[in-house]
Amino acid sequence: MKQKHLSVSAKKHLGQHFLKDKNIARKIANTLTLSSYKNVLEIGPGMGVLTQFILEKDLHVSVMEIDTESVLYLETHFNSSLLQIIPADFLKYNLDLVFPNQPFAITGNFPYNISTQIVFKTLENRHRIPEFTGMFQKEVAQRICQKEGSKTYGILSVLTQAFYNAEYLFTVPPTVFNPPPKVDSGVIRLQRKEDFSLPCDEKLFFKVVKTAFGQRRKTLRNSLKTFNLPDKLKEDSIFGLRPEQLSVEQFINLTKKIENQCSFN
Fold it and tell me: Which CATH architecture has domain 202-261?
């Protein structure tokens, strides 16, 4: 499927590198497990290189594309009763309008410049999204799936893994894109946990994680000073650790301790 309709400058402006290798596209389509859903939303399909392989599966498919040239190409070259083309910005779109009242998976070759925002919006809508697969800049893909103890483990890792099981699947070289990026890409799969509710205050959990990693070189005793924690609570051994040393479960337990001994608006 050729992609000559979009200029290189236009692609760079969109922050997207379009996949041209059909074998890689097929591999990404096959990352969808098809368990517990029959609907898929592809973000940023471009000229539909990945879309064609998703459509081979027994699914209802919607694609969301902001670029008008790509939308026109998709409308011209794809004629399927199972495909809905949504000319919109994913970050601004009300996802309640996508497959109303039904669960759906998300996949795509995500634009580098908004990929983390796509993940955060997915987390906000996790009650409807049991699975999320797709391609990121390799560094971002690894960060999402990273475990505690690593320098790249951070806010994105903890918040994602609080609700999803994250798996790094494979690396993709720059040569399979047009225009080729300067770095490798990585494909991941997120599968929602069976129990994806938190046993603590969710807003407080997000605040604790973000505040802790805001000063990641400091111990929690220092990085969480803005919480005005009681001295007795700060004597807990967990406050002597740095944020990258805490597992997701430990962050949840930390939030519960703060929640139990402090009052927040």
Answer: Orthogonal Bundle (1.10)
